[in-house]
Amino acid sequence: MSESTRLEITAAEHAGRRARLAQRLQDEGLDAICVFGPVRVAYLTGFHFAATERPVGVVLSDTGEVTTLLPALEETHFAQQCPDLPAPLTYPEYPGGGTGRHPLSVLADHLRARFPAARRIAADHDGYENRWGYRGPALSALLGQPVHPGLELIDDLRMVKSAAEIELIREACRWGDHAHRVMQNSIAPGANELLVSHGASLQATRDMLAALGERYVPKSREGLPANAMFISGANTAHPHGLHQSVGVMAGDVLVTGAYGTVGGYESELERTMHVGDPTPEFERYFAAMLGAQNAGLAALRPGRTCAQVEADVRAFIEDQLGMTALVRHHTGHAFGLEGHEHPFLDLDDHTPVEPGMIFSIEPGLYVPGLAGFRHSDTVLVTETGSELLSVYPRELADLIIPA
């Protein structure tokens, strides 16, 4: 099996990302950048790992030289995933493994030795992120000099997806759609939210692995490649309502979520459904929600800003529906390696919309005591407009569960 058949980003594309970031360092007059965010490490190197209390980081110089900081337990794992990169800088354990040295001091010593005359070093965080009990000094304190904010230098590169990224997300959409179909076919009165959600996710994952075979390359220790879930009843009036251990009943509104993960990249699909014959009240709010989503789809195109897209949706909800009081969140967000990424379709985000960006379009209406109404789709910005990558039915007739 050649590398080109594997559903993952190639080493050559990762090298291109580092080259673009190195050029940005030169443009900004920066000597190097330290990267601690696990997703950003993976974006730049292809090293996917379980993020724990043990610091992992990447140092990239303005000339493109790369050094990776790892706990010793990850050394062979790194060599397996990134054979094209130099051997890493390692430390024995956190908080020191008996050495008396904090892992971040190992990195600081390397920076002082490698960049003795460095005037400007940037980082996505001023030290490793606090997770799983980690405690540590700021990188700036160890270096005795300010660390310049560098998060945007990387995340701005992530906004516009490459052709390879788009194809991975397109494939993830196919399996998110499939997981949702498996789940919808499994829902009936009396069904338990948790059992149906997990059962459908497992079945869809079996189908996905059978279809893709060795082309599928897992990038995580947790979660399934294909996932679907739903919440029901008045609980859906909470935009992020938790599961309830209750059975589905006739007359319930369901709000669903489904996604695939391929090559580390995610999709997003959400639907509003109804168990049994819908009431006129439900139909009215459903039509309003669908109209708002259509307004968002029509508004998303190059040459506009994220704020302008949101303004169009808000104007539709206010002027056409008179339902502004039912809005609880903005219209959508970008995503890729993470479920939520910069930028956001929000009135205060003035990022220009560009071809190759991928957004969710998910304006919601939330009626207290009744239900929430929200569809979400994965949408690719094209040269002239947008393209739906998730193609699951959106019309009410296709989203009714027989009672």
SSE layout:
Blueprint: H1 11-28, E1 32-35, H2 38-45, E2 57-61, E3 66-71, H3 75-81, E4 89-91, H4 103-114, E5 121-123, H5 139-143, E6 147-149, H6 151-159, H7 163-186, H8 193-212, E7 226-232, E8 253-262, E9 265-266, E10 272-275, H9 280-299, H10 306-321, E11 332-334, E12 341-345, E13 358-361, E14 365-367, E15 371-373, E16 377-381, E17 386-388, E18 400-401
Parallel strand pairs: 1-5, 3-4, 5-6, 10-18
Antiparallel strand pairs: 1-2, 2-3, 7-8, 8-9, 8-10, 11-12, 13-16, 14-15, 16-17
InterPro entries: Creatin/AminoP/Spt16_N, Creatinase/aminopeptidase-like, Creatinase_N, Pept_M24, Peptidase_M24B
Domain Peptidase M24: 167-383
Domain Creatinase N-terminal: 17-160
Descriptive notes:
With 403 residues, the chain is α+β, with helices and mostly antiparallel strands. It folds into two domains: 3-157, Creatinase/prolidase N-terminal domain (Creatine Amidinohydrolase, Chain A, domain 1), CATH 3.40.350; 160-401, Creatinase/methionine aminopeptidase superfamily (Creatine Amidinohydrolase). It is built from ten helices and 18 strands. It has a six-stranded mixed sheet. Strands 7, 8, 9, 10 and 18 form a five-stranded mixed sheet that branches. The chain starts with 10 loop residues before the first helix and ends with a strand. The relative contact order is 0.11. The model has no long low-confidence stretch (mean pLDDT 95). Residues 17-160 form the Creatinase N-terminal domain. Keywords: Aminopeptidase, Hydrolase, Protease. GO terms for molecular function: aminopeptidase activity.
